[in-house]
Design brief:
Elements: H1 2-8, H2 13-35
């Protein structure tokens, strides 16, 4: 609970109650979705960007300039 306590530090009573309510409702929704068979949403699964692929030879992709040809 230290993470939650650090998030709540310095908030007034109204903001603290609102933040705790948001956290609780998010946890409840995730638990209900998991009980219904769905996995929790992950940030890495959201969006259209694809992961960079490493090519053979041990070099990192995308780091070389084309001007050296």
């Amino acid at each position: 609970m230290s993470l939650i306590h650090s998030l709540l530090e310095g908030l007034d009573d109204g903001d603290r109650d609102r933040t705790v309510g948001l956290i609780n409702s998010s946890i409840t929704a995730d638990l209900e979705n998991v009980a219904a068979g769905a996995g929790p949403a992950r940030q890495v699964d959201v969006g259209t960007r694809s992961r960079a692929r490493r090519s053979g030879g041990g070099s990192r992709s995308g780091s070389r300039s084309k001007s050296g040809r």
